[in-house]
Specification:
The protein is α/β, with parallel strands linked by helices. It has a domain of 107 residues: Ribosomal Protein L4, Chain: A (3-Layer(aba) Sandwich). 40% of the residues lie in helices and 11% in strands. The strands form two sheets. The chain has a four-stranded parallel β-sheet. It is flat.
Length: 263
C-alpha cells in the first residue's frame, strides 16, 4: 500500500509505503463510537448546580408552632414545597461523567479512523511544513499551494473544521503562522486522538516516515504497559499465597498438642 508525498509548494515529492497494521483495518463503528463518547464525557465539566434545602440561605427557625394554628405543619421555610425553597432533584455539579477507556481500544479506534479517512481521500502527507517567519501570509501561501492538489481544494475555503495539521515535532513559527486560521487546528502527531480527528474533514501529516513509525509503535507501547500490569498482578498473587501459607504454619505451631492418655 503506497501513497504520494507532497511538499509545501503542492508538488509531488515522492512516495511512501503505508503500514498495513494501521491503514488496512476495516471500519468498526461500535468501537469508534464507544471510544469517542467516552473521551467526550471525560472532557465534561459539570457547571449546572441547583441548591437543595440544606444549601439555601435561611430557614433555620420553625415558621410556626406544630399544633394549634390550624395550618399545615412545617419545620423550615426552605422546604422544596415553599417558594424560595431548595430544589428537590435539580442538577448537581459534583456529578461524575468520567468513563474508563482501555489503551488498546483507544489506539485501535485511532487506527480505524485513520484508515477510513485515507480510504475517503482525506489524508495528505507532506514532507515538511516550515515557515521562515511566524507570518499568517506565509501560512496562507502554503494552504493555497496545498489546495491545488486533487481532492483537497476545500482546505482553504471550508469555513469551519477544515483541517487538522499534525506536525512531527514542535515548531513555534509554524504554530504561530497558522494560529490565526479559525478553520485549522495545529498540533503534534503524538497528540492525535479519535475525538479531534473526527472534528475535521482533512488531516495533514508532516514528515510521514517518522510520524507513521511513531503511530505504529503506539500499540506496542500500550501492550507493554498491559503486560507489566499483568506481571505485577501475578507477583502479588504469589506473594499473597506465600503469606497465607506462613500464617497457617504459625497458627498450627501455636496450637497446643493434646496428649493421649492410655488407659
Amino acid at each position: 500500500m503506497e501513497t504520494k508525498i507532497y511538499d509545501q509548494k503542492g508538488k509531488e515529492a515522492g512516495k511512501i509505503k503505508l503500514p498495513e497494521s494501521i491503514f488496512s483495518l476495516s471500519m468498526n463503528e461500535d468501537l469508534v463510537h464507544q471510544v469517542v463518547v467516552s473521551m467526550a464525557s471525560n472532557l465534561r465539566n459539570p457547571i449546572a448546580h441547583a441548591k437543595d434545602r440544606s444549601e439555601v440561605r435561611g430557614g433555620g427557625r420553625k415558621p410556626w408552632r406544630q399544633k394549634g394554628t390550624g395550618r399545615a405543619r412545617h419545620g423550615s421555610s426552605r422546604s422544596p414545597i415553599w417558594r424560595g425553597g431548595g430544589a428537590t432533584f435539580g442538577p448537581v455539579k459534583e456529578r461524575n461523567f468520567t468513563k474508563k477507556i482501555n489503551k488498546k481500544m483507544r489506539t485501535k479506534a485511532l487506527y480505524i479512523i485513520l484508515a477510513e479517512k485515507f480510504r475517503d481521500g482525506e489524508i495528505l502527507f507532506v514532507d515538511n511544513i516550515s515557515l521562515k517567519e511566524a507570518k499568517t501570509k506565509e501560512a496562507k501561501g502554503v494552504l493555497e499551494n496545498l489546495s491545488k492538489i486533487k481532492d483537497f481544494e476545500m482546505i482553504l475555503n471550508k469555513k469551519k473544521n477544515s483541517t487538522y495539521l499534525a506536525l512531527s515535532g514542535r515548531d513555534t513559527n509554524t504554530e504561530k503562522g497558522f494560529n490565526n486560521f479559525g478553520n485549522i487546528f495545529i498540533n503534534e502527531v503524538r497528540n492525535l486522538n479519535p475525538l479531534d480527528i473526527l472534528k475535521y474533514k482533512y488531516l495533514i501529516i508532516t514528515q510521514p516516515k517518522e510520524s507513521l513509525s511513531f503511530l505504529e509503535s503506539k500499540l506496542d507501547q500500550s501492550s507493554k504497559v498491559v503486560k507489566k500490569d499483568v506481571a505485577k498482578k501475578e507477583v502479588k498473587k504469589v506473594v499473597k499465597k506465600a503469606e497465607k501459607k506462613e500464617t497457617i504454619k504459625k497458627v498450627v505451631a501455636k496450637k497446643p498438642v493434646k496428649k493421649v492418655v492410655k488407659k
